[in-house]
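Hi P.,

Sorry for the delay on this. The queue was packed all week, but I finally got your sequence through. Input first:
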Amino acid sequence: MTVSLIDQRRLAIEIIATLVNIKRTAADQLLRRSNVPEPLIGRFLSDRDPATGTKLSKRVAGAMVLDALATDGREAEVIDALISIAANWDAYHLAADEYQARATVQKAREVQPELAGQREKEEAARQARDRAASAAAERAQKVTLGQQSALLLGQFDHAMAGDDAHGRGYLLQDLLNRLFDLHEFPVHRAFQRNAGAEQIDGAFEMDGWHYLVECRWRKQPADTRDLDGLVGQVGRSGRQSMGVFLSINGWSEHVVPMLLQSRDKCIILMDGYDLRSALSQQIALRTLVQAKIRALNLKATPFLSARECM
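Then the structure:
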């Protein structure tokens, strides 16, 4: 049997009106134990009838409390608590009419199991709706991720086939920022610091750390001098900072040994294959970056290819 909200509300008002004779004691024994907010308890105790100027009865004041709770969605929670209190009530000496109080308690004891089962079904239905909504949102997110990744991959491949070396540099910064943003990394686009003395290509955050990013898209592989600026920028940053050096065409044979000699071990390397693997969704970007960080921290290896992560 389903207990209607009207019946639940009627019983809750009866509990407030009959179990405790003195209004202030009713506030303590019933309303406060049901987590009714203090401002509403104050109104329960003090509100007056506008026509007569007399204080509202417990029955009328209790209805006012439930009306106010209904506006913010807390009415059912308080009604459940009141019925639970009444179902376990034995302080009949507090009532003005013990027989009426006992009848109210008996009704609460009959209703409580039905209401508990009803609430359990409602909660199960709510959880099922939440799971369905979450699954739908996840599917939509995957579709968006696939569409946007395909768009970025197309831009990358188009630039790879072209010969606009100057334009590719700017495209790479924008493409990388959009990729990290798409994968829900907090992103900081290109900015200057130290009164304009330093230009940062971009930065992102992951697991409480900040990563400064420097990009290179040149015909020749990057050399140690190309990394000097990023190493210095990371060194002048806070302690929870690292660097990501992205060079589409890789780096010379001197770069990795130079980074291995560094005491700080604060730079990880990415190449064009790594970037394309993330753009084509062969590997999740976060998975790739985390694998590179583990390789650096555990094996002192500044470069781990996406090939080794898939």
